[in-house]
Design goal:
Number of helices: 21
Strand content: 5-15%
Number of strands: 7
Radius of gyration: 26 Å
Largest sheet: 5 strands, parallel
CATH superfamily of the largest domain: P-loop containing nucleotide triphosphate hydrolases
CATH architecture of the largest domain: 3-Layer(aba) Sandwich
Distance between the termini: 12 Å
């Protein structure tokens, strides 16, 4: 029987805006990006449990954006790919903060948010006119996890939301289940393998040679590349010695990445995670990136739960903690120390299937490692990421241009070399390395587009050509229409001082 929750993309967008606008009146418009990103991740996880994914799903995905935010531009191929990769549900940081604020004020905004999420996800599940049992289970799991945060934080009880299982209209297998690869025995008509064996075969290991080639293709980082190769050789030989029952000395595989922002630390961490999986040290090889806000909560006991959620999502792969020194910089009573202790215990409990990489500026990271004997004993491998020089910045810029179909004339090439040389030589403490290259490229794309748009019937070469003037930071930006300038976000009101506001609007249960 078709579901009664099906709505057109336009109708759904109005429902989404009604709910999010009401939520921002209680919270802050500054949460718009975080909330839209969270809802998109929920949609991807939900649709991986759907019977199929089609153009209608794409239309709905492109309606998940708040007022004043850019409209998404999903296509079927990348939506399907993203849905297949979406796995572990992670409660967002802003929800923890919302629940903690409710506990202080005696309000129940976080519980209202859970009910709002249930409604929105039911609309998204019904996009194909069916709500599968797997989709309803996913919605229930999401809301149960958020409700558990409310319970443990001490948010007062509130009325229950809808039960997604009451709206199931189809028992069709999920998109993910229907597209599992066959085992060799099943393909040949032989006896089916055990569930454990089938699951092991379904988990495709990363290609070691492809990952090493990708590492080699990175600009600069010669010492880092050498250190990673040495580490992989050491680990491979270590596993061979274990196979021949030879003595294997104790060895920690956790790492410290030190260097300025934009020097490739996250990229190398992702490659290391895949390489570890390729040689059998890790079972999956995913990279989970967090910072202090993803581990530390505002109450005693809550930080351990929050850190455990991050650890759980990283099992089988690498937990990458950026600016890790912030966990130990708050004094003896800071909750960051609770996160460190929880982390150390997990590193011991899951030492066979969890790698932790901590990253940050050089001096603060040294103080961080020496702040706890447990950290010193587990983190003894340091990788130093130097700043990129002008020539390397220019090479990164060339790669971006080539990858995106832009061509540099000889005159433009010279202007760009001068720009990046000057950028490196005059760098300050805010120097962003690769991030500055990305920003320069994106600014160039905007200026080039503005220039080409004024041409009469521009051809392919016009669309590709980058001129020196496209690299210049011109001062005539006031010509940009005012409507295109981002509005200044209002100052965030502390939760305990915020005036009482009406709870987010909840969509009424549809007529049967």
């Amino acid at each position: 029987m078709p579901t009664t929750w099906n709505r057109s993309p336009e109708e759904f967008h109005k429902i989404y805006l009604a709910n999010t606008d009401a939520f921002y009146r209680i919270g802050s418009p500054m949460l718009a990006k975080d909330l839209d990103d969270f809802m998109t991740r929920c949609a991807l996880g939900l649709w991986s449990r759907a019977g199929s994914i089609g153009e209608r799903h794409v239309e709905m995905a492109n309606q998940i954006y708040s007022k004043g935010r850019p409209k998404p531009s999903w296509l079927l191929w990348n939506l399907t790919s993203a849905a297949c990769q979406e796995d572990v549900f992670m409660p967002p940081v802003f929800f923890w903060n919302l629940a903690e604020s409710d506990a202080k004020r005696g309000s129940e905004t976080s519980r209202t948010f859970v009910r709002m999420l249930t409604n929105i996800l039911l609309y998204l599940a019904a996009v194909d006119d069916e709500v599968t049992y797997a989709e309803a289970e996913y919605i229930t799991d999401c809301t149960d996890r958020l409700t558990a945060i409310c319970d443990t934080t001490g948010v007062r009880k509130s009325r229950d939301g809808l039960n997604p299982l009451d709206y199931v209209t189809s028992g069709e297998p999920s998109f993910r289940d229907k597209h599992k690869p066959q085992t060799s025995a099943q393909a040949s008509g032989g006896e089916a393998k055990s569930e454990a064996e089938a699951k092991a075969e379904e988990t495709e290991k990363p290609d070691f040679d492809a990952l090493m080639a990708e590492l080699e293709s990175l600009v600069g980082l010669e010492d880092v590349k050498k250190d990673v190769k040495n580490l992989m050789n050491l680990v491979k030989v270590r596993k061979l010695r274990q196979q021949y029952e030879l003595p294997v000395p104790p060895m920690s595989l956790h790492m410290v990445f030190v260097g300025n922002p934009g020097t490739g630390k996250t990229t190398v961490a992702r490659l290391v995670s895949g390489l570890y999986a390729a040689i059998g040290v890790l079972s999956k090889g995913q990279l989970v990136e967090v910072d202090r806000s993803g581990l530390v909560a505002g109450y005693v006991g809550q930080t351990a739960l929050k850190t455990q959620e991050a650890i759980k999502s990283a099992l089988g792969g690498v937990l990458f903690i950026d600016e890790a020194y912030s966990l130990s910089s708050g004094g003896e009573n800071d909750f960051g120390r609770e996160a460190i202790e929880t982390l150390l215990k997990a590193m011991e409990d899951h030492r066979d299937d969890l790698i932790v990489i901590v990253a940050g500026y050089t001096v603060p990271m040294e103080r961080f490692i020496h702040s706890n004997p447990g950290l010193e004993s587990r983190f003894n491998k340091y990788f130093f990421f130097p700043d990129y020089n002008g020539e390397q910045l220019m090479e990164m810029f060339r790669i971006r241009c080539k990858k995106n179909g832009y061509s540099l004339s000889e005159e433009t090439e010279k202007a760009a070399v001068d720009y990046f040389t000057r950028l490196y030589e005059e760098r300050t403490e805010n120097f962003g390395n690769g991030r500055d290259v990305r920003n320069a490229f994106e600014d160039m794309v905007v200026r080039q587009a503005n220039r080409v748009a004024k041409l009469d019937e521009p051809g392919k070469e016009d669309l590709m050509a980058v001129l020196p003037e496209d690299l210049e930071d011109r001062e005539d930006e006031e010509e940009t229409p005012a409507a295109e300038e981002p509005a200044e976000a209002p100052a965030e009101v502390p939760a305990e001082e915020a005036p009482d506001a009406e709870a987010p609007a909840e969509e009424a249960k549809p007529e049967e």
